[in-house]
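Database export, one record per block. Field names are fixed; values are copied verbatim from the stored entry.
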Amino acid sequence: MKIWRDEDTGLEWLYDATLISAWYELEGNLEDVIHDWRNQGWQIPRIRDVMTLIDYTKSNLAIKNFCPLKIESAWCRDEYSSNSETTAWCVSFLDGHIYPSSKANGKFTLFVR
């Protein structure tokens, strides 16, 4: 796992480009995945956290240039429901869209504090 600090927002991101999991796996194994990092303030990012990583002036690979998180999409949580027990929010770093995705799909998992 690596930690990257976004100097624009002050948010720290914990990531591993190999950490791909279905939401169901993540829900059931969150403590195993982040071990004692929750005690250090790590959490699955909210939509508004993830939006800070997106450069909306770009049309392809919309993640900000200085951001080392070179991944296609990632899970995010939010206070807004995706209106389904079988979907969770996901953000695409290819085009900046935020959309509900099947919890059975594999996505990257990021943590923020």
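Remark 1: The CA atoms of residues 25 and 49 lie 22 Å apart.
Remark 2: The longest helix spans residues 23-34.
End of record.
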